[in-house]
Amino acid sequence: MKITLIHGQNHKGSTYHIARMTAEKISDNIDEFFLPRDLSDGCSGCAACLYKGREHCPHSEKVGIIFDSMLSSDVIVIGSPNYVMGMTSHLKGFFEHIFTAWIGHRPEEGLLSKIAVVVSTGAILGTKGVTKSMAKQMFYLGIPKVYKLPFEVMAASWEGVDDKKKEQIAIKIDKTACKIKAKKGNTSPGIKYKFIFLMLRSFHKKNDLALFAVDKKYWTDKKWLGNERPWKHTK
Ligand SMILES: Cc1cc2nc3c(=O)[nH]c(=O)nc-3n(C[C@H](O)[C@H](O)[C@H](O)COP(=O)(O)O)c2cc1C
Description:
binds flavin mononucleotide, 8 helices
């Protein structure tokens, strides 16, 4: 199994260790990225991705390396410390660069059979909210099965996390890795994704806005405005 492991931070604290341990429990074939090390630019707001295509983004080379890795992996593990009740700005910046692969724009069929794990650690409060917002990104990219691993570690470094907490974390990671290994190759979009897809299909059929011209062409080429569906080849 191939894993793409994306760290929403450069440093190796609690979030790094937990995300890395999770990936290693699943497979030793890991493609690893750190943000901002591997993508330091935020979205510049030029909207070239929307009007022309992702390849026209000024940061497309760096974004493309990470996104291509996601497309060729079976499992995507993404970690971020809880920073002011949200994911890190660099991880959010990465998601901004790939939002044109969202369901209503140009969804990638290859993502519709993948599994994701989203990891966050916080000192005290709000970490479930962080994994929830990371999981939302996975949903709109079409990844049908997402495991959330939020941990309040009461520390600002991995060394500061007490042993009992580390044991609980290790148990949770083991259980999650077992579920993922059992689930691999057996995931497909659920009813909510399909419902949103059909609503957006009807939107694209009725509208011809310049803003969505590239999207509409993509849907037309894929025959999604007819009877084809992006999940047709998933189980
Ligand atoms: C800029 C910043 C903002 C933070 N905001 C929160 C927060 O909103 N809630 C929380 O519980 N911890 C917060 N923390 C603490 C970290 O999320 C926590 O220590 C986390 O485990 C650090 O992960 P790391 O060891 O991977 O860096 C914040 C830390 C920093 C540096």
